[in-house]
Specification:
Belongs to the glycosyl hydrolase 5 (cellulase A) family. This protein is of the alpha/beta class. It has two domains: 325 residues, Glycosidases (TIM Barrel, Alpha-Beta Barrel), CATH 3.20.20.80; 97 residues, Immunoglobulin-like. The protein contains ten helices and 15 strands. It has an eight-stranded parallel barrel, surrounded by six helices. The relative contact order is 0.10.
Length: 436
């Protein structure tokens, strides 16, 4: 677990809001040569979105909202941006203005939220982080409603020209505007959506625009995109999708179809295992970040609007990336003296004459993903099948344990690793189990 709360924030200079605003307003004369962030590659070559430094975007959301004072305070603290950059090794913040989701009397106006966005853009500039500014509502245009995009249009009329010359800024013009993928191709929807897009494009011709922000990958998204094929400036436009869909979505086929068409894509939301029923493993990877790294896609994770703990990043994302070999940071960041359970797999084997037994295979790794040989693994079967075991890992860090043979109907059981002991390594003592 990373020491977020112990990070020495006092080492960073916290600027007054007025000073930050001045910096933001001065940006048109700064770094002009970097204006074309992520945009110069042709559609045929650009498969995912990169930031101002040319690196694939890897980010996390920060939320602004009148009712979310804790999140606003977090967003305006420069040290949090530095922490995300230096400790979490992320290079992007997706700044979501979520007030449009609330009733009108519970939200800021566009004029009221602008000073807070100014501070965040200044924080991005001072830390060198990319910032995706996102107008954030859900299904706002679903079923053909609100096609005037009134509040969204008012937001972008103020925001689009304001940061048009900042190479770190990217515009995601809406969030999941409809849950019905067929809406996108309806004449009235498409016309209104393109009007919004063109207004933002005209106000900021060289800013990268993220479009669609599809609510699922469980639909042939390439069919929607082809309907807009000749209407968009693809040099400065990327397609966003959210890695949602539940148990019926197990592959990234609809994402790779867009990539095959030569489009630049980014996943602007994925969530962690067990959070919601619409979150599932994709392409066989338990954590969606591994899927995205395998695809070579830019990504931003997701968490509750008022959650500023970064627990998921520190306790799930980074350990999983280090353990499974897709960590994008320095390899020296991992703890090679940690003993961890890399995987538990369970199979049922026939033993003859209608009998069978359960077989559990356990892989023990160090914190950098390398196998640990000669580790004593203690574990037990629980539930329908029971039994305690202690076995030494082989040279590949693996052990296989069997239950007694049984006959009849198989019911639910699990295998649980209760302890790991190995010279020079430490196990955190947390039980790890797999249910069959």
């Amino acid at each position: 677990m990373l020491a977020h709360e112990n990070f020495h924030r006092s080492h960073f200079i916290i600027f007054e809001i007025s000073a930050m605003k001045s910096l933001v307003q001065a940006l048109p004369t700064i770094c002009f040569a970097l204006l074309l962030v992520g945009g110069m590659a042709s559609k045929a070559k650009a498969q995912t979105l990169s930031g101002a430094d040319g690196e694939v975007i890897r980010g996390t959301p920060i939320v602004l909202g009148k009712q979310l004072s804790g999140s606003v305070t977090f967003a305006e603290d420069l040290s949090n941006w530095i922490y995300l950059r230096d400790v979490c090794k992320l290079n992007t913040v997706r700044l979501c203005w979520v007030d449009p989701w609330y009733e009108i009397d519970a939200q800021w106006t566009v004029e009221e939220v602008l000073p807070h966005i100014d501070v965040c853009v200044a924080n991005a500039t001072l830390s060198g982080m990319n910032i995706i500014i996102n107008y954030h509502n859900i299904d706002e245009q679903g079923g053909g409603q609100n096609l005037d995009f009134a509040q969204c249009r008012a937001f972008w009329e103020a925001v689009a020209p304001r940061y048009q010359d900042n190479p770190l800024v990217i515009y995601e013009i809406s969030n999941e505007p409809t849950f019905n993928m067929n809406d996108y191709l309806e004449t009235s929807f498409k016309s209104a959506y393109l009007d919004l897009y063109n207004d933002v494009r005209d106000a900021a011709p060289f800013r990268q625009i993220i479009l669609f922000s599809f609510s699922t990958i469980g639909y042939p998204l390439d069919e929607v995109v082809r309907g807009y094929e000749n209407e968009l400036d693809w040099e400065f436009t990327s397609i966003a999708y959210h890695m949602y869909g539940g148990k019926r979505v197990r592959t990234s086929d609809n994402v790779t179809a867009m990539m095959r068409d030569g489009h630049r894509v980014i996943c602007t939301e994925w969530n962690y295992p067990g959070t919601f029923r619409y979150v599932s493993s994709v392409d066989g990877y338990e954590v969606n970040s591994e899927t995205l790294e395998a695809l070579g896609n830019a990504w931003v994770d997701w968490r509750d609007w008022d959650d500023t703990t970064l627990d998921e990043i520190e306790e799930i994302l980074i350990p999983d990336a280090m353990l499974k070999g897709y960590w994008w940071g320095d390899s020296s960041d991992c703890e090679s003296t940690d003993a961890v359970v890399g995987s538990i797999s369970i199979a049922i084997q026939g033993t003859g004459r209608g009998a069978k037994r359960a077989e559990a295979t356990v892989l023990i790794l160090d914190g950098c993903g390398d196998p640990i040989a000669n580790a004593l693994v203690e574990g037990e079967f629980r539930g329908f099948l029971q039994g305690q075991h202690s076995v030494i890992t082989d040279a590949q860090g693996s052990i296989t344990l069997n239950t007694e043979s049984f006959k009849g109907k198989l019911e639910t059981f699990e295998f649980c690793v209760t302890n790991v002991t190995a010279d020079g390594y430490q196990f955190d003592g947390q039980e790890v189990s797999q249910t069959y």
